[in-house]
Amino acid sequence: MKVLFIKYKKSKNIFEGGEQCSQKNFDAITQIVGKKNVTTLYVHDENKRKSAWDYLKGLFFFLFNYYFGLTPSKVRKIINEADSYDVVWIDRSVFGIMAKKLKSHRYNGKIITFFHNVEVPYFKAKLGKKPGKGLILRCVNKNDNYSCQYSDKIIALNLRDDDELFKRYGRRADVIIPVVFKDRYKKDCYPQETTSSRPLCLFLGAYFPPNNEGILWFVKNVLPQVNVRLKVVGKGMAKLKAEEPMLKDINVVSDAPDLLPYFEETDIMILPIFKGSGMKVKTCESLMYGKNIIATDEAFMGYEVDYDVIGGKCNTADEFITCIKGFESKPRPRFNAYSRQMFLEKYSEEAVIGKFREVLDV
Predict the structure, then answer these.
(1) What is the model's pLDDT at position 12?
(2) pLDDT digits (tens, 9 = 90+) for 29-56
(3) Whether residue 307 has pLDDT greater than 90
(4) Three-class SS of residue 133?
(5) Distance CA 190, CA 290 (A)
(6) What are the chain's domains?
(7) Of 97, 92, 93, 104, whose CA–CA distance to 71 is shortest?
(8) CA–CA gap between residue 266 and residue 256 (Å, rounded)
(9) How many CB atoms lie within 10 A of CB 11?
(10) CA dist., res. 6 & res. 9, Å (int)
(11) pLDDT for 48
(12) Residue 10, strand partner residues
């Protein structure tokens, strides 16, 4: 079996959450069919400088439901190459117009589309009141619809997204595959330290409206009421610190190439995320590293775990304060064995490889 893997972008440095999820999909597929049988095409290449003309073209093609970076010429290239492949894997539903065009050109292979989110609610949270929001929402809505209408199989991350797809477009996912990671934390001996009486809390997330709103809410409403140290790590987060005076005394690390030291030194992962779609990659990564996690419904969405054993599910300032104070008064292992166990059983690449086989029919 030969697979043409359509990926959003070739990153020049640090992967964001969606790119990490794409990479795990790619890794799973290559594990099944062999790396030599998978070819990747990128809609964006961050290593190539974009001109003003590129941006103008992108804005123009939005009018015709080509999501930014995609053009008719790029779609024709995909159509021309597709006949050499048994499967075209479209790793983002905003490129649903590819599925539509492939079908109209009588592509005989299988089209599989992976939904990282249901894009309309995701972009509503992402864009806020930015100009052009209506045009972008129209484009992503059309493409999600095309993905549902013209893909042979579609994949959702969780039941919430599956229900949302059915409500909006009348189609359910053929397979639900949650966010997964290839295990990068296999050790003979895991950390034995207990949490500090003044716990170190880590917020992990890139510069992105729901992340920004979440950590600012936490700093304003929770941090003054608890005796903790807070560290913020994420791509582009230096920009948020420069914009927001309330972060002037917070330790912010922007664009860290290796997250392992931050995970290992941290007592508690703090994930106060209130908006979004899909699943939060940072939650899966926290499970992989065996962390105590205090998070909202949104940050835990799609994860089937015992929240109290992991740390706590909190949606109000009082709930966060109470839960964190519990760590202050009663230290517990910094390495949460239950979190690690849940990762291995449910959210590791090995745990869901059978679902990838199912969707590929191999």
Answers:
(1) 57
(2) 999 999 999 999 998 766 666 677 777 8
(3) yes
(4) helix
(5) 9
(6) 3-177 (3.40.50.2000), 200-346 (3.40.50.2000)
(7) 97
(8) 15
(9) 18
(10) 9
(11) 67
(12) 45
Q: Which two tokens stand for residue 105?
A: 């050109």
Structure tokens at 190: 């895991």
Give dist(CA 294, CA 319) in Å, integer: 10
Residue with tokens 């910094």: 334
Least confident range of 132-136, 168-172, 215-219, 292-296: 132-136
* Closest by Cα among 130, 171, 159, 161 to 276: 161
258-282 pLDDT tens trace: 999 999 999 999 999 998 888 999 9
Residue-wise DSSP of 248-304: TTSEEEES-S--HHHHHH-SEEEE---S-SS--HHHHHHHHTT-EEEE-HHHHTT--
In the chain, DSSP assigns E strands to: 3-10, 38-45, 87-90, 110-114, 153-156, 175-176, 200-204, 229-234, 251-254, 268-271, 292-295, 311-313
Whether this prediction's pTM lies above 0.85 is answered by yes
Burial degree of 237 (CB within 10 A; 0-12, 13-18, 19+): buried
**Separation CA 288–CA 184 (nearest Å):** 8
Maximum Cα interatomic distance, the chain, rounded to a whole number of Å: 65
Distance CA 251, CA 234 (A): 12
What are the CA-CA distances from residue 278 to residues 178, 209, 302, 319, 361 (Å)?
A: 9, 16, 8, 24, 24
Residue 317: per-residue pLDDT:
98
- pLDDT 10s digits, 128-156: 778 888 999 999 999 999 999 999 999 99
CA angle (277 as vertex; 275, 279 as ends), nearest 5: 105
Kind and range of the H or E run holding 212: helix 209-221
Q: Whose structure tokens read 């117009």?
A: 97
Q: What is the pLDDT of residue 15?
A: 59
Reference 212, options 188, 191, 186, 243; nearest CA is 243
The residues, ordered by sequence, that sit 6+ positions from 108 with a Cβ below 8 Å of its Cβ are 83
**For residue 125, what is the enclosing H or E element?**
helix 119-127
* 83-97 pLDDT per residue, tens: 999 999 999 999 999
Q: Would the CA dihedral through 327, 328, 329, 335 be positive or negative?
A: positive
